[in-house]
Amino acid sequence: MVAQPCSPEVSDPYAGDAVFELHRGGKIEVTSSVPVRDAADLSKAYTPGVARVCTAIAENPALVRRYTWKSNVVAVVTDGTAVLGLGDIGPAASLPVMEGKALLFKEFGGVDSVPIALDCTDVDEFVETVVRLAPTFGGINLEDISAPRCFEIERRLKERLDIPVFHDDQHGTAVVVLAALRNALRVTDKSISDIRVVISGAGAAGVACARILLQAGVGDLAVVDSKGVLHEDRADLNPVKLSLARDTNTGGLSGRLVDALDGADVFLGVSGGTVPEEAIARMAPGSMIFALANPNPEVHPDIAHRHAAVVATGRSDFPNQINNVLAFPGIFRGAFDANASRITEGMKLAAAEALAGLISADDLRPDYIIPSPFDPRVAPAVAGAVAAAAETDGVARA
C-alpha cells in the first residue's frame, strides 16, 4: 500500500490539488527486476545462492558492476541549500525536486537513481558522507548545493572517487547553453571566436558556462556578479571568482552589467534580476539573448525580441528552452555505457556538439536552436557522443 503523507486525523489542505495529488506518496519507487515465484527463485535471489555472488565480488571487486545494480544507478545528492527558484529550503523540502530528478533520469536516459537529501552543510561532512555511500552507486549527481561550497565539494569528490561525479547545476546548464549558442551562431552567421559574451551571474551555472564557452573558443567573455564585472583588481572576490577573473575579461571591462552589455553579441543570464531594455538595445546587431532565470527571465522574451536575433529562456512556455534534462540523462547513460571513471571536459563538449547537431540546416531557425526534451533522439545522441569521448579521453574501462 502506498504510504500517505497525512494521517486520516489531519486535514490535508492540498487534497484535490492536481500538483499535490501527483506527488502523493512520492514520484518514484523501487521495483524488482527478477521474479521470486517459488523457493527455487528465492534460493537464487537470496540465501543461499547470493553468497556465491558475494564471494566472487569479494575476490574480484570489478564484478560488482556486472552482478549488482551499480552499473546503472546514480545517487542524486543535495543538502537543499540552493534549490532552483527557492533557495535554502533544507534537505526535507528539497526531496520533491530530487525525486523529480530521479524520475527524469529514468524516463529520458534509462538510468536508475536514488534521491539522497543530506542533513549537513559542512563541506567536510558532506564529502565524507558521500564517499562512504559511494560503493553502492555507479555515479554521483550533485544537485542544488550553494556556491561556492559546490565547487569544493565536487572537486574533492572527483579526487577521491573513481566513478563519475557531476554537478548538474553547473555542467548540465553549461552543456545545453553551448549547444544552443552553437546553433544561434549558425542562425546569425557569426563565429564563436569573434563574439563578445557577457554572463550575468558568477554562481554555479555562471562559472561553469564561462568555463565551457572559453574551452569552445569564445575569446572575449566577461562575467558580472551583483557588484559588477569580475576583474583582477577587485578585492572582494573569492578564489573561484578570482580565478575566473584572471581567465576572462580580456577587454579590461569594469563597471556594472549595463556597461558591459554595450556592443556585446551575447547576453547569458543565470542570476535573476531584471536587465533594463535600454541596456540590451545597445548590444551589437544580430545579438543573442539567453535569459535563463526562472520563472522570471532577466529580460522578458517579448522585450528581448525587439532587439535580438535569437532569444532563449529557461521556461517551457517559450521557444528555445534551455533545459538540463537535455543533457544529464544522456551524459550519465554514455558514461555508464563506457564504464567511465569520470566525466571529462571532452565528454561535456561532445555532449554539446551532439545536441547542437540534432538540428539540421533545413530545420534551424531563430525559434528552434535546441531540440525538445521529448525528442527521442536526444538521450541516445548525447550518450553515444559521451561514450565515444570517454574512449578518446582514456577514461573508459573494459
UniProtKB/TrEMBL annotation:
Divalent metal cations. Prefers magnesium or manganese. Residues 25-158 form the Malic enzyme N-terminal domain. The active site is at residues 46, 101. Signal peptide: none annotated. Residues 170-391 form the Malic enzyme NAD-binding domain. Belongs to the malic enzymes family. InterPro entries: Aminoacid_DH-like_N_sf (IPR046346), Malate_Decarboxylase (IPR051674), Malic_N_dom (IPR012301), Malic_N_dom_sf (IPR037062), Malic_NAD-bd (IPR012302), Malic_NAD-bd_bact_type (IPR045213), Malic_OxRdtase (IPR001891), NAD(P)-bd_dom_sf (IPR036291). The keyword Ribonucleoprotein does not apply. This is NADP-dependent malic enzyme.
